[in-house]
Amino acid sequence: MYVSYIKLVNFRNYSNVSFEFDNNINYIIGKNGKGKTNLLESIYFLSATRSFKTKNQNELISINEKKNIIFAEIFDDINKNEISVNLEKNFKKVTVNNKIIKQSSDLLSIFYAVFFSENDIEIIQGTPAERRYYLDIILSKIDKEYIYSLKSLKRLIKQKNNILKTTYNSEIIDVYNTKIEIENIKIVSYRKNIIKFIEEELNIFNKSAKNNIGKVKIEYKQSLLNFTEKEKQTELNYRECLYGAHRDDFIIYCNEMDAKKYLSIGEKRLTSLLIKLTEVMYIKKKKNIDPVILIDDALSGVDEIRKEFFWQIIKGNKLQTIITDTEMKCVDNNIFESYKLIEL
Amino acid sequence: MSTLDPLRNVVFEFSKMPGIGQKTAQRLAFYLLSLRKEQIDEFVTSVNDLKNNVGYCTICFHLTYNHEHCSICQDEKRNQRALCIVSYPKDVMVLEKMNKFKGLYHVLGGVISPLDGIGPEQLRIKELIERLKKEDVEEIIFALSPSIEGETTVLYLQKLLKPIGIKISQIAQGIPLGSELEWADELTLGRAFEGRNSL
Ligand SMILES: Nc1ncnc2c1ncn2[C@@H]1O[C@H](COP(=O)(O)OP(=O)(O)O)[C@@H](O)[C@H]1O
Ligand SMILES: [Mg+2]
Ligand SMILES: [Zn+2]
Q: Does domain A121-288 have CATH number 3.40.50.170?
């Protein structure tokens, strides 16, 4: 799939512009503050119906304006689809071919974008919440059931926290625990599945010597199997829900070393880039969808050899790619035979 | 006292009602002002009738008019052995309009939701237990909304009722996730009743 056209009205620094993209490599050049990241953010929004930059969607509306529009034409092998997003203060409407979309998973087969940036490093060194969020976003796009389980768990935790903090009633707590166990099993099994896939793919990348980050093992840290007296007592002592998928984490080991603790910044950056690349593989293999690749600041912080490995994969898969950069470095290096240049 | 005070009072009363904002409240007040005296009297009479003569059935807690027991509980032709448990009287109305279920009801008055301060004590669960002791109920069917709170309430009651050894089932298929029972159209609910799952 590829995005051929996008129009932005009152989106961040854009009051009214449109862009046309090639279905191959697109190279966007602009100085700092020109709106490169903003443009990628708008494209990503069409896929995830959320921003990669902020949880407060009101920030996406230009200062002093009340509403904005993102409109895009998306092509796949057979169809042309029009996606449009309308944001107003605390209001969001997403339509595909003029039909309202309720869940981001409904967009999966129409438009899927993977966004690469320096911040990906947080997958390795971020807080457990940030790391879970990364998995949750992918899984929510892939499966409605996952969204439903996550929402249910969130609500159950909120209700149970309330009883823990007020009138502790152990019969009701048991009922909540039973419900939490049921949703927890579902969520954990989805997460373990994708983590297994990531681990396998990373070890395949490892076979290319240039790219070696050492034997990878990813361990899912599950906080809840089931509620025994011990867990119930601890929660009663702290008066808070301490066990469940909302408290889980995962540890990435490279050559048996915890990546978060031991890898250099450069190695972390590379590992996070490769993990993102496995997301591309996941969507391709499991969902048979060719995602659109968005790359902010042209892989800055990654060494040249690894960059080349990355570009080879992108080119080999013929995915539409939109790259931003401050100068025309990639072009100077003759990495791409052909590309469309867009100057901001 | 200003001439506009009565108008303000009525607007104020309307604006306290659920789903009614300041603008709508004003529109309704002006509408009342435009009515003839007889129309106003009729309106006031029906509001009074509602308050004075509609109450809760002392058996099932559905609404009842002028009687201690509702028309469903009074109807001897209904299957006295099947009991359908719902949250609110409006759910009984939805199910009755569907005209598939021929048994009796028990209205809990809500669902368990600690965030809203509603625990088992706030619901008519004690009354349910009392009823089950007195009546010859053979089957209980849960028709609570498919929300987290509805599901939690079902699970709680299921555990509570297990020792009594009555057959328990739950209407399951056909209700959109996360939506309220009153929104489900009659057709889907019909299917939901046929496909009820034994718990
Ligand atoms: N809601 C907004 N309204 C107007 N301008 C905005 C808004 N959000 C961000 N900007 C502007 O966008 C610019 C940053 O754009 P960005 O895409 O991050 O630049 P870069 O090209 O460096 O990636 C800043 O100058 C900022 O003032
Ligand atoms: Mg930028
Ligand atoms: Zn009754």
A: no
